[in-house]
Amino acid sequence: STTMEELDRSRAFAKDVKRIVVKVGTGVVTGKSGRLALGRLGALCEQLAELNSDGFEVILVSSGAVGLGRQRLRYRQLVNSSFADLQKPQSELDGKACAGVGQSSLMAYYETMFDQLDVTAAQLLVNDSSFRDKEFRKQLNETVQSMLDLRVIPIFNENDAISTRRAPYQDSSGIFWDNDSLAALLGLELKADLLIILSDVEGLYTGPPSDPDSKLIHTFIKEKHQDEITFGDKSRLGRGGMTAKVKAAMNAAYAGIPVIITSGYSAENIDKVLRGLRVGTLFHQDARLWAPVTDSNARDMAVAARESSRKLQALSSEDRRQILYSVADALEANEKTIRDENELDVAAAQEAGLEESLVARLVMTPAKIMSLAASVRKLADMEDPIGRVLKKTEVADGLVLEKTSSPLGVLLIVFESRPDALVQIASLAIRSGNGLLLKGGKEARRSNAILHKVITDAIPETVGGKLIGLVTSREEIPDLLKLDDVIDLVIPRGSNKLVSQIKNTTKIPVLGHADGICHVYIDKACNLDMAKRIVSDAKLDYPAACNAMETLLVHKDLEQNAVLNELIFALQSNGVTLYGGPRASAILNIPEARSFKHEYCSKSCTVEVVDDVHGAIDHIHGHGSAHTDCIVTEDPEVAELFLRQVDSAAVFHNASTRFSDGFRFGLGAEVGISTGRIHARGPVGVEGLLTTRWIMRGNGQVVNGDNGIAYTHQDIPIQA
């Protein structure tokens, strides 16, 4: 969404921006003829004047003097030439002379414009050699500070007219070598909060902007883009071009100053940058945290995950355990960074108006991060699941067959909202020896990106971070779902719509559940205090969870002895909104529920009155999702009937539905909850991510039509 993209930019300016260096290129200052582009320059001055009046400290670095001087000198040359002179080849004008003539004209225009806007400007011409002098740099800071205190806008330019460069238009040696690098240098020297480079194009493209195949790069990532970009020609009139701008932007950004390269043709671009809108190309030292470094296609990612998983399986059990300990340590060590990124996701979700339940799923508190680290360590301490001998058989004399546990291969997990799911899933994949591809919801993409980086950085190079791939684009999912030859299992964690879409568009086996419509049935033989505790916990402990109670079923006899009213009061007094089935809505005078199959994921639930335990079981089978259902009763026969006949993945007696969780079951963590009946059911931990292999050891046996071999098929005890 636009809001989330804008907040991506806002993050670049984590501290308050006060001091801004604006560099304007020759292509913006002058038109095609070389004359001043009066309209654009006027609009620029108006923007800078407005910033100045708003309390920003504005420093301008302006190119254009050489181009403007060249145009004026050519005109003067023409005026002073005879007809015969014009027939001769025209000599190239001296660059230094062009700079000297153009600088006075350019500054005169700036002064005129700023005077009209009631702003004072000051000209500062500098040379590369000056910056070698510490006293000069000290004086420069003092002078500029004095000007800024007086609301004066300093206008910098390199003094090309007396520059000692051998060739002012080619020589790129020295401390700075053009106005782009001068702007970056001034940003650092004067401790600017932001550098904006205004160009004649929208920003940095993957190739020449005129090429229809070139794409605008919104966030420059050094590791990804520096070797992939094809630059076109240098500036039309100046001597910089995009190559110079990128080099200057990288120098400033990686020294700590955010940089935006954007078009100077749009009158509002500076204001848009300061509002965090998505314009131009952003350079930032933390950009690598915000986007993937590589553009691997779907198949490449899956193949890389499989190759890394094989390397992981080749490690010793202790080495695999140590990786999980390293992941847990890394989560705790990076708690602040994780929370900083997560807070941006939460802020974006709130600003975008997402439901409260979705926002709640996003939040990563310090306690949750510590809990995640603890669950990873618990997983590490469990018995190694890979290579366990499950069955051992003597097939024939000297021929032994073993059935052993083995990783599935490569898992694709698609999940929504909850960034903590990424940690659980990744740690389970590492423990079970599987490769993993993850696609989280866009509302958690910053949290997912930092968690992915923290985890993969903890994986040793002998295995490689490609063991766990993070899919960042929704468009990649259809391609991944076609890869039934390299992806072995898809586990969607999210809405009914998401699960249904995936099941309908892939040949890959799918494990998961569509809805979490969990029921609590209060029998007539309940303990009231226990019932209130369980009902309150099942609904209120974490209303957004898939194992939270969505429907409360109550025995009809409890209406008569006021138990029903006490249960209703316990929920309503804690802010729960109640909807009723046909019977309950009439009894309790509450709105009727639109559907019994609705998953609220919030502080709301449905209430219905049933005749008895059989009515409760029928209701659950008719409207439930086979996730988790509970009975509260002191009658053991009724309890056993409920436990035997309710056909759900998890069925509880006198315990909150919130216990339906991999960590609480002692699985260490869970990759999801399955309501299917094949392979795994209920909370899916390590065991659900394993399959089996057959290992046979012989000493030369052959089948030969089963002649000469005596099959014994004797079970061999498995040694602990």
Automatic annotation (TrEMBL):
The keyword ATP-binding applies. CDD domains: AAK_P5CS_ProBA, ALDH_F18-19_ProA-GPR. Residues 18-263 form the Aspartate/glutamate/uridylate kinase domain. It catalyses: L-glutamate + ATP = L-glutamyl 5-phosphate + ADP; L-glutamate 5-semialdehyde + phosphate + NADP(+) = L-glutamyl 5-phosphate + NADPH + H(+). Pathway: Amino-acid biosynthesis; L-proline biosynthesis; L-glutamate 5-semialdehyde from L-glutamate: step 2/2; Amino-acid biosynthesis; L-proline biosynthesis; L-glutamate 5-semialdehyde from L-glutamate: step 1/2. It comes from the Eukaryota. InterPro entries: AceGlu_kinase-like_sf (IPR036393), Ald_DH/histidinol_DH (IPR016161), Ald_DH_C (IPR016163), Ald_DH_N (IPR016162), Aldehyde_DH_dom (IPR015590), Asp/Glu/Uridylate_kinase (IPR001048), G-glutamylP_reductase_CS (IPR020593), G5K_ProBA (IPR041744). PROSITE patterns: GLUTAMATE_5_KINASE (PS00902), PROA (PS01223). This is Glutamate 5-kinase. HAMAP family: ProA, ProB. P5CS plays a key role in proline biosynthesis, leading to osmoregulation in plants. Transmembrane segments: none annotated. Keywords: Amino-acid biosynthesis, ATP-binding, Kinase, Multifunctional enzyme, NADP, Nucleotide-binding, Oxidoreductase, Proline biosynthesis, Transferase. Residues 294-561 form the Aldehyde dehydrogenase domain. In the N-terminal section; belongs to the glutamate 5-kinase family.
